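Tutorial, part two.
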Amino acid sequence: MQIGFIFSLIFAIFIAVFALQNSASVDVNILFTKVNMSQALIILISACFGAIIVAIFGFIRQFKMTMKIRGLKKEISDFSVIKQEHEKQIEELKKQLEFKNEPEITEQEERNISDDSMKQNMEIVDILQKKDDDNKN
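Running the prediction step on this input gives:
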């Protein structure tokens, strides 16, 4: 930014010196009229019009860039929301995977557990019957 400003100042000084060195009066045709003006004034007016045109194009470019930045920020925001949703889905899938990876009881283990509980129940029944028989005697 500062380099551009310095370059602009040097160019303005160059134009001013050039205009002062060419200060002769000349006839200028502007549309349908003929005007007698100083050549320095014509040079300075032309430089000013050029600067105005460059400034307009600069403002247009700046406006387009601002709009593009605004659109990209909105896209970033949208992608951030999508990212959060995906992270939640990943966490849910990890939990489901952990749940599925828990060891399952095989049929044989289930039968063993069932047999063990039957034996325990039978032992309890036997103990209760013995107590009942003792109580009867």
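The chain has a mean pLDDT of 83. In part three we will examine how such features are distributed along the chain.
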